[in-house]
Structures are given as C-alpha cells and as structure tokens.
C-alpha cells in the first residue's frame, strides 16, 4: 500500500512534466503555423498571446485560491517576458519551427550557464568542452549557406532565448511562481500593446490567426506554465533543466508531422552538438 501511495505522486509529476513540455513545443508550432500562413502579423500575435495568457493565469490563480486574485511579479521580469514574446513572434516570420526551437533553448541554457559563471561557479574541463560544443553547434547552425536560417530571424530568436533565461533566473526565488507569472503577464500586456501600436497600420488577422494566438497564450503558455510549476515541486533543478532539452526535438518532430518541414543535415548535426553539449555541462555540474 505504501509503495502504491508513493507511486501516485510520481505518476502525477510525470504527467504534469510531459504535458508542460508538449505545451512548450506547441508554442513554436502554433506561432509558426499562424505566421507562415500570413493569418496574423507578429505584433498582433504577441499582443494577443500575452493578453490571453494573463487572463488564463489570473483565472487559474482565482480558482486555486478562491476570490483571492492577488498577483506578484515585478516590472523587470515583465520586461524580460515581453522581450521574449516579442522577439519570439518576429523571429518565427522566417524561421522554421524546429530551427527556432533549437536556437531558443540553446540560447536559454547558454545564458543561464553564463550567469552561473558570472556568479563565480567553476566549471570542470569536461563542462567547458560541453559549453564549447554547444556554442559551436549554434554557430554552425547560423553560418551562411543554402540551409542556413535568415540571420536577423536567428538573432531575434537568440535574444528571445536570452530574455527567457534571465526571466527564469529571476523567477527561481519567487515564493509563489504561479502568482508571480500571472503578475508578470499582466504587466507585460501594456508593453505588448505599446509594441503593436507602431505596426497598427500593417496589422492584420483572420479568425484562424487570432484563434492560434489565443490558444498559444491561454493554453500552451498560461496552462502550460501552471503545469510546469506544479511539476517543479517534485523535480530537482538538474532534472528540470535536463528534461527541457527534449523540447527542440519534440518541436522538430511536430514540425515534420504537422507543418511538413524538412529535417536538414545542418539541423540534425547542430541538434546533436547543441543538445549534447548542454547535456554534458548539466551532467558535470550535477557531479
């Protein structure tokens, strides 16, 4: 009976983790699907995503805590969240879903490793090799060539990853991550609207584009983050970082299946280098 009681929380954590990782991958697929079909412009997509995410998170907070809709967060974290969403949206105008996810999560992990080094953490020789391998993989992925991603879009996605890395680091010590995320989404909403205003003359959106933005904000962002924070209660920091390496692979598989995107040799080799290098760093830091 005791073993069965222990097994139930583990299965719940596994289910929450898997659902959250699928949601993270779906964000790339939904954004690329909306923008590739020209169903919506990137500024409108980002604004709707942030607004619907804020609404969903506030409703989740209220359902969890009754009528107490108090939220936390701060403006700097909200600015990082806004920067992530904005660069993410504009990057996917010309990036494939698989390539974008690989650049995004590579930049997230590298920025967090950089913060660890800045904070005085010492890396072993093997960890430095892993860091160099991951960096070389990113450089190889964006080197000029027939199958190279557009440089500006790749730079936008790298900036999105760096912003998300900073946002994640700032949120580590939050006493209630769900309330903090809800507050940050609420603060990011007017920033997203301010970004949309200069592009208002070029704004366009059909029903499908709006629906994809709402699903990306409310479901795969709002609900996805809620599931992830629930799972984090039972995951170590190392396990949480490691399982996130699966997101670019899930995204690439989904892009082939749902968007008919090809898997190029460049993308395959870069994936091995980036994800393998990051995994090596994580393994050595764990030891």
How is this structure best described in words?
This protein is 79% helix and 0% strand. It is mainly α. Helix 2 packs antiparallel against helix 7 and helix 3 crosses helix 7. It is globular, with a radius of gyration of 19 Å. The protein starts with a helix and ends with a helix.
Write the layout of secondary structure elements.
Blueprint: H1 2-36, H2 42-65, H3 75-91, H4 97-118, H5 125-142, H6 151-171, H7 177-196, H8 207-232, H9 237-243, H10 246-259, H11 265-286
Helix pairs in contact: 1-4, 1-8, 1-10, 2-3, 2-7, 2-8, 3-6, 3-7, 4-5, 4-6, 4-10, 4-11, 5-11, 7-8
Bin the strand percentage: under 5%
- Strand tally, please? 0
Radius of gyration from the alpha-carbon trace, in angstroms = 19 Å
Low-pLDDT sequence parts: none
User: Which H/E pattern describes the elements?
Assistant: HHHHHHHHHHH
Tally of helical runs = 11
SS-based class? mainly alpha
> Looking at the structure, what is the overall shape?
globular
Largest sheet: none
Helix content: over 70%
In short:
79% of the residues lie in helices and 0% in strands.
Structure keywords:
single chain; mainly alpha; 287 residues
